[in-house]
Amino acid sequence: MVRVGRVVLAAAMMAAMGKPVAAEVLDATYRGTMVCDKLPFTSNKMREAIQVTISSGAARYNHVVRLRNTAVEAVAEQGTGTVDGQKIQLQGTWKSGSRQYEAKYSGSFVRRSAKLKGTQTWTDGGKTEIRACAGAIKRPLKPFLPRNKKQAAAW
Fold first, then answer.
1. Which of 49, 52, 105, 132 has the fewest Cβ atoms within 10 Å of its own Cβ atom?
2. How far apart are CA 22 and CA 24, in angstroms?
3. Number of C-beta neighbours around residue 122 at 10 A
């Protein structure tokens, strides 16, 4: 009798440990940074803030654009996307003067964060440059999230 109890307990423990931790993708604002490769007209790689708001499987985001070490561009990259299970897909654009780009990022959630990877396809004076970007976004801990839609709108 004791032996059967131990076998059942061991089987239950192995089943619980064998399952991967599923991400809980909640409706929230996720914040993080993206690091993008150097462009011919920039002095370094750029590390800039990104904010992604997820609501009912839809995403919208904005990403800071900086072409010089000190000045943030007046217009941020903006876009939309989708969340399907643990996967996120984003696409957006940015334009200022003769420079513009289209961006595509994707990633997977693990627990309360997602790692993102993608590219920006730049057009500047008739030339095209593609640069790689990678980063991560993370949501606040669940107790710090707004509890209802009215609180979420105020947040």
1. 132
2. 6
3. 19
Maximum C-alpha span of the chain: 80
**Rounded CA separation 65/73 (Å):** 6
Tell me, yes or no, if the pTM score tops 0.85.
no
Give 54-122 as a DSSP string: EETTEEEEEE--BSSSSPBPSS-EEEEEEEETTEEEEEEEEEETTEEEEEEEEEEEETTEEEEEEEEEE
In the numeric block, which tokens belong to residue 19? 């399952």
- d(Cα 125, Cα 100) in Å, to the nearest integer? 10
- Each of the 155 residues of the chain gets a pLDDT tens digit; together they read 555 555 545 555 555 554 445 667 899 999 999 999 999 888 889 999 999 999 999 999 999 998 877 678 889 999 999 999 999 999 999 999 889 999 999 999 999 999 999 999 999 888 999 999 999 999 988 888 887 655 444 44
The closest alpha carbon to 61, from 5, 13, 11, 107, belongs to 107
- Residue 109 carries which side chain, given as an amino acid letter? F
